[in-house]
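--- STAGE predict ---
source: upstream dedup step, 1 unique chain passed
mode: sequence only
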Amino acid sequence: MNVLVIGANGQIGKHLVEQLAQEGKHQVTAMIRKPEQADALKELGARVVMGDLEGTVDELAEAMKDQNAIVFTAGSGGSTGPDKTLLIDLDGAVKTMEAAEKQGISRYILVSAYGADQRSKWPEEIKPYYVAKHFADRALFASDLNYTIIRPGGLKNEPGTGRVAVGTDLKPGSIAREDVARVIAASLQEEKTYRMAFDLIAGDHAVSDALGKL
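--- STAGE serialize ---
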Protein backbone atom coordinates (compact mmCIF):
# COMPACT_ATOMS: atom_id res chain seq x y z
CA MET A 1 0.00 0.00 0.00
CA ASN A 2 0.96 3.61 -0.48
CA VAL A 3 0.44 5.19 2.95
CA LEU A 4 0.23 8.95 3.53
CA VAL A 5 1.10 10.05 7.07
CA ILE A 6 -0.44 13.40 8.01
CA GLY A 7 1.41 14.75 11.01
CA ALA A 8 4.58 12.97 9.95
CA ASN A 9 6.78 15.57 11.59
CA GLY A 10 5.17 14.93 14.99
CA GLN A 11 6.49 12.50 17.54
CA ILE A 12 4.16 9.60 16.71
CA GLY A 13 4.42 10.43 13.02
CA LYS A 14 8.20 10.15 12.95
CA HIS A 15 8.08 6.77 14.69
CA LEU A 16 5.46 5.57 12.20
CA VAL A 17 7.38 6.77 9.14
CA GLU A 18 10.52 5.04 10.36
CA GLN A 19 8.72 1.80 11.23
CA LEU A 20 6.87 1.58 7.91
CA ALA A 21 10.08 2.29 5.98
CA GLN A 22 11.98 -0.38 7.92
CA GLU A 23 9.23 -2.99 7.53
CA GLY A 24 9.27 -2.46 3.78
CA LYS A 25 5.68 -3.70 3.31
CA HIS A 26 4.32 -0.28 2.37
CA GLN A 27 5.56 2.84 0.61
CA VAL A 28 5.30 5.70 3.10
CA THR A 29 4.81 9.35 2.17
CA ALA A 30 5.07 12.14 4.73
CA MET A 31 2.83 15.16 4.32
CA ILE A 32 4.67 18.26 5.54
CA ARG A 33 3.85 21.95 5.75
CA LYS A 34 7.38 23.34 5.87
CA PRO A 35 10.05 22.47 3.24
CA GLU A 36 12.76 22.41 5.91
CA GLN A 37 11.11 19.31 7.41
CA ALA A 38 11.72 17.27 4.27
CA ASP A 39 15.32 16.12 4.68
CA ALA A 40 14.86 14.51 8.11
CA LEU A 41 11.82 12.55 6.93
CA LYS A 42 13.54 11.46 3.74
CA GLU A 43 16.39 10.14 5.88
CA LEU A 44 13.84 8.03 7.77
CA GLY A 45 12.79 6.50 4.44
CA ALA A 46 9.77 8.52 3.37
CA ARG A 47 8.79 10.33 0.26
CA VAL A 48 7.48 13.81 1.02
CA VAL A 49 4.58 15.87 -0.24
CA MET A 50 3.55 19.39 0.69
CA GLY A 51 0.16 19.96 2.31
CA ASP A 52 -1.47 22.32 4.77
CA LEU A 53 -4.39 21.35 7.01
CA GLU A 54 -5.60 24.93 6.85
CA GLY A 55 -5.72 24.71 3.06
CA THR A 56 -8.66 23.60 0.93
CA VAL A 57 -10.11 20.14 0.52
CA ASP A 58 -9.05 20.19 -3.14
CA GLU A 59 -5.46 21.01 -2.17
CA LEU A 60 -5.42 18.18 0.36
CA ALA A 61 -6.90 15.79 -2.19
CA GLU A 62 -4.08 16.69 -4.57
CA ALA A 63 -1.54 15.87 -1.85
CA MET A 64 -3.21 12.44 -1.50
CA LYS A 65 -2.82 11.53 -5.15
CA ASP A 66 -1.76 7.88 -5.71
CA GLN A 67 -2.24 6.94 -2.04
CA ASN A 68 -4.11 3.88 -0.77
CA ALA A 69 -4.37 4.73 2.92
CA ILE A 70 -4.35 7.85 5.08
CA VAL A 71 -3.09 8.10 8.66
CA PHE A 72 -4.04 11.26 10.55
CA THR A 73 -1.78 11.80 13.55
CA ALA A 74 -1.51 15.57 13.35
CA GLY A 75 -2.20 18.02 16.13
CA SER A 76 -1.95 21.71 16.79
CA GLY A 77 0.35 21.11 19.75
CA GLY A 78 0.22 22.11 23.38
CA SER A 79 1.52 25.64 22.82
CA THR A 80 -1.45 26.80 20.72
CA GLY A 81 -4.87 28.00 21.80
CA PRO A 82 -8.37 26.57 21.29
CA ASP A 83 -8.67 28.34 17.94
CA LYS A 84 -5.80 26.36 16.36
CA THR A 85 -7.06 23.18 18.04
CA LEU A 86 -10.38 23.57 16.22
CA LEU A 87 -8.69 24.46 12.92
CA ILE A 88 -6.22 21.54 12.96
CA ASP A 89 -7.52 18.75 15.20
CA LEU A 90 -11.15 19.14 14.09
CA ASP A 91 -11.58 20.97 10.79
CA GLY A 92 -8.19 19.85 9.46
CA ALA A 93 -9.04 16.24 10.22
CA VAL A 94 -12.51 16.49 8.65
CA LYS A 95 -11.09 18.10 5.51
CA THR A 96 -8.69 15.17 5.09
CA MET A 97 -11.63 12.78 5.36
CA GLU A 98 -13.46 14.71 2.64
CA ALA A 99 -10.28 14.79 0.54
CA ALA A 100 -9.79 11.04 0.92
CA GLU A 101 -13.35 10.42 -0.27
CA LYS A 102 -12.77 12.81 -3.16
CA GLN A 103 -9.70 10.78 -4.20
CA GLY A 104 -11.47 7.45 -3.79
CA ILE A 105 -9.22 6.40 -0.90
CA SER A 106 -11.15 4.24 1.56
CA ARG A 107 -8.64 3.24 4.25
CA TYR A 108 -8.29 5.92 6.93
CA ILE A 109 -6.73 5.71 10.41
CA LEU A 110 -7.32 8.50 12.92
CA VAL A 111 -5.33 8.95 16.12
CA SER A 112 -7.80 10.33 18.65
CA ALA A 113 -7.50 10.44 22.46
CA TYR A 114 -8.47 8.19 25.36
CA GLY A 115 -11.92 9.18 26.58
CA ALA A 116 -12.80 11.29 23.55
CA ASP A 117 -16.02 9.32 23.22
CA GLN A 118 -17.15 10.04 26.80
CA ARG A 119 -17.61 13.66 27.89
CA SER A 120 -17.35 12.66 31.55
CA LYS A 121 -13.68 11.78 30.97
CA TRP A 122 -12.60 15.11 29.45
CA PRO A 123 -9.99 16.97 31.54
CA GLU A 124 -11.21 20.50 32.18
CA GLU A 125 -7.84 22.09 31.39
CA ILE A 126 -7.76 20.75 27.80
CA LYS A 127 -11.47 20.43 27.08
CA PRO A 128 -11.27 22.18 23.64
CA TYR A 129 -8.81 19.46 22.54
CA TYR A 130 -11.28 16.76 23.56
CA VAL A 131 -14.16 18.56 21.86
CA ALA A 132 -12.12 18.58 18.64
CA LYS A 133 -11.25 14.89 18.94
CA HIS A 134 -14.83 13.92 19.80
CA PHE A 135 -16.37 15.59 16.79
CA ALA A 136 -13.61 14.51 14.41
CA ASP A 137 -14.33 10.95 15.51
CA ARG A 138 -18.03 11.47 14.90
CA ALA A 139 -17.39 12.85 11.42
CA LEU A 140 -15.36 9.76 10.60
CA PHE A 141 -18.09 7.45 11.92
CA ALA A 142 -20.55 9.21 9.62
CA SER A 143 -18.32 8.89 6.56
CA ASP A 144 -18.14 6.07 4.04
CA LEU A 145 -14.43 5.54 4.81
CA ASN A 146 -13.05 2.23 6.06
CA TYR A 147 -11.88 3.80 9.29
CA THR A 148 -9.96 2.83 12.40
CA ILE A 149 -10.00 5.23 15.35
CA ILE A 150 -7.22 4.69 17.89
CA ARG A 151 -7.62 6.38 21.28
CA PRO A 152 -4.30 6.18 23.12
CA GLY A 153 -3.93 6.98 26.81
CA GLY A 154 -1.30 9.31 28.22
CA LEU A 155 1.57 9.55 25.75
CA LYS A 156 5.15 8.88 26.84
CA ASN A 157 8.46 9.38 25.07
CA GLU A 158 10.13 6.33 26.57
CA PRO A 159 11.06 3.35 24.34
CA GLY A 160 8.13 1.14 23.46
CA THR A 161 7.78 -2.41 24.70
CA GLY A 162 5.65 -3.80 21.89
CA ARG A 163 3.14 -4.97 24.52
CA VAL A 164 -0.27 -3.29 24.55
CA ALA A 165 -3.87 -3.51 25.67
CA VAL A 166 -6.73 -2.55 23.36
CA GLY A 167 -10.46 -2.44 23.99
CA THR A 168 -13.59 -0.33 23.97
CA ASP A 169 -13.67 0.57 27.68
CA LEU A 170 -10.19 0.25 29.16
CA LYS A 171 -9.17 1.76 32.47
CA PRO A 172 -7.01 4.90 32.21
CA GLY A 173 -3.38 4.26 31.40
CA SER A 174 -0.43 5.44 29.37
CA ILE A 175 1.58 4.22 26.39
CA ALA A 176 4.83 5.01 24.62
CA ARG A 177 4.44 6.94 21.38
CA GLU A 178 6.59 4.32 19.69
CA ASP A 179 4.00 1.67 20.55
CA VAL A 180 1.16 3.84 19.26
CA ALA A 181 3.01 3.91 15.95
CA ARG A 182 3.36 0.12 16.05
CA VAL A 183 -0.39 -0.24 16.50
CA ILE A 184 -1.09 2.13 13.60
CA ALA A 185 1.25 0.18 11.32
CA ALA A 186 -0.27 -3.15 12.31
CA SER A 187 -3.82 -1.83 11.89
CA LEU A 188 -3.37 -0.84 8.26
CA GLN A 189 -4.32 -4.28 6.95
CA GLU A 190 -5.75 -5.92 10.09
CA GLU A 191 -9.39 -6.53 9.24
CA LYS A 192 -10.36 -6.75 12.92
CA THR A 193 -9.67 -3.00 13.17
CA TYR A 194 -11.82 -2.05 10.19
CA ARG A 195 -14.66 0.34 11.11
CA MET A 196 -13.61 0.07 14.75
CA ALA A 197 -12.73 2.56 17.46
CA PHE A 198 -10.72 1.39 20.46
CA ASP A 199 -8.72 2.55 23.47
CA LEU A 200 -5.00 1.83 23.60
CA ILE A 201 -2.66 1.64 26.59
CA ALA A 202 0.44 -0.31 27.55
CA GLY A 203 -0.39 -3.91 28.36
CA ASP A 204 0.66 -7.54 28.25
CA HIS A 205 -0.12 -8.60 24.69
CA ALA A 206 1.90 -8.39 21.50
CA VAL A 207 0.40 -5.86 19.10
CA SER A 208 -0.75 -8.41 16.52
CA ASP A 209 -2.35 -10.62 19.19
CA ALA A 210 -4.13 -7.69 20.82
CA LEU A 211 -5.57 -6.41 17.55
CA GLY A 212 -6.56 -9.90 16.45
CA LYS A 213 -8.85 -10.20 19.48
CA LEU A 214 -10.87 -7.03 18.77
